[in-house]
Amino acid sequence: MRNIKYTDSAQFQCLEHLREAFMDLYLVHCGIEHCQPSQSIGPSFRDEYIIHFVLEGKGSYTVGGITYFLSSGQMFLITPGEEVRYGADADEPWTYAWIGFNGIRAASTLRNCGFSKQSYVLPFKKQDALVEHISNILTSSQLSLSNDLKRNAYLLLFSFLVDNYNCIFGQTHKNGDIRYDYGSSVYVEQAIDYIKWNHSRGINVTDIADYIGISRTYLNHVFQKELGISSQKFLMDFRLHKAASLLISSDLPVTEVSAEVEYDDSLAFSKAFKKKFGLSPKNYRTHKETMERFSAKQPSTNELLDVANP
């Protein structure tokens, strides 16, 4: 078995190669890293569970063919045996803390923290307390029974995560309703990011709600509250605006533009497009091209001033 390794530098703190001293839930490694721009890891597989907590900056996480774009206040889960890739943003590279663990109770503990196959990414609160716990683990780096017990005791940070889940996503009342306490604008922002990057994958409102980790009903509620439209209408409008952009910026036939925005039926696409913009896709393209040519032939404001003031 490898000896415990402790690394401590300005950019990177890590404690790894820990012994499996406890069966229920045991620590494998943890650390804090200030990543460089575009610094990435993967594709790779892990044998243990790992939760990364984004403390500052931005980055992305890809699992199961889906890419999540994250920022401060979000955490993401890596599960054993799944191929993953993650990396820091080029302009605002993230700083994150992480904790790797395993044990008989690992999967059930994660479920109580709100993670699932549909929810690899969740928001988190109490950042200061979480960083304090991980820092305490890092300072208990010497190989001794006392430090083994200390490190395992600090795994009580999972109690924060369970409380975090109950606080953010609400408690179930007797009538079956859920009280959601997290800002609705956060859910809308996450939904829009997901739509931007996955609209061509045939996603629907249920997929969006599952990605965020809330119900479809509540997703519609927050869209109505923040934007005044349903999540379904937003998704449809987004696809139609994307189609309008493709009609102008490319020479793709209307049938291919229809397919690009996930309309299998080009006739249904044309009807929806005309209802939205008042013109058929073909006429929209012709109209825009005509307007651009017309604008190009018009004299500029400076040219008109020159004529008026010879």
Give an overview in words.
- The protein is α+β, with helices and mostly antiparallel strands and 310 residues long.
- The chain contains twelve helices and eleven strands.
- A hairpin with a 3-residue loop joins strand 1 and strand 2.
- Helix 5 (184-198) crosses helix 7 and helix 8 (231-249) crosses helix 10 (266-277).
- Mean pLDDT is 77; it is low at 18-23, 171-182 and 294-310.
Radius of gyration: 25 Å
Order of helices and strands: EEEEEEEEEEHEHHHHHHHHHHH
The number of helical runs is 12
How many β strands by DSSP? 11
Q: Biggest sheet, open or closed, and with what strands and sense?
A: 7 strands, antiparallel
**C-alpha termini separation:** 89 Å
Uncertain regions: pLDDT < 50 for 5+ in a row? 18-23, 171-182, 294-310
Shape estimate:
elongated
Query: Which class of secondary structure composition applies to the elements?
Result: alpha+beta
Q: In percent, how much strand structure appears in the residues?
A: 15-25%
- How much helix is in the residues? 40-55%
Strand order of the largest sheet: 1-2-3-10-5-8-11
The whole-number mean of residue pLDDT values reads 77
